[in-house]
Amino acid sequence: MRHRKAGRKLNRDSAHRLAMLRNIVTSLLEHERIVTTLPKAKEVRRAAEKMITLGKRGDLHAQRQAAAYIRSKSIVTKLFKELAPQYAERQGGYTRIIRTGNRPGDAAPMALIELVNYEEPAPTQSQVSDQQ
Q1: Fold of the CATH domain 14-131
Q2: CB 94 within 8 A of CB 52
């Protein structure tokens, strides 16, 4: 029985699982939108929302806790300076998971996980001229 055993194992040992989740959370905060498998996206959502909550707290202890999990100092800075103020009025639910179908190779369910107020970057002038 799995009573009171939270989280998914994702077919990895604990060190590999922790390293993978830290890398994916760092990538999500950097790019604000990533594509991964559905079970990984659901696990990443838990950790990413905790990091944004730390960013909203904004004190030194929260910065150190976030830096202990996130792989890049520049991403920690982005979290506290840019992302946290965007979610200051929001009471949770900072990420969105969109199912995108199955992967062709192994039929794994894929999903797109993004931050809620993610906006597509505007096309540059060269991209506009390439389309015409």
Answers
A1: 50s Ribosomal Protein L17; Chain: A, (3.90.1030)
A2: yes
pLDDT at 124: 76
For residues 77, 80, 82, 86, the Cα torsion angle rounded to the nearest 10 degrees is 160
Q: Maximum distance among all alpha carbons in the chain?
A: 60
Q: What is the DSSP letter of 89?
A: T
Would you tell me how many other CB atoms lie within 10 Å of the CB of residue 45?
19
CB 79 within 8 A of CB 66: yes
Q: How far is residue 38 from each of residues 31, 75, 112, measured CA to CA in Å? A: 18, 24, 8
Q: What is the mean pLDDT of the chain?
A: 93
Summarised one tens digit per residue, pLDDT across range 29-65 is 999 999 999 999 999 999 999 999 999 999 999 999 9
- Beta carbons within 8 Å of 53's beta carbon, 6+ residues apart: 92
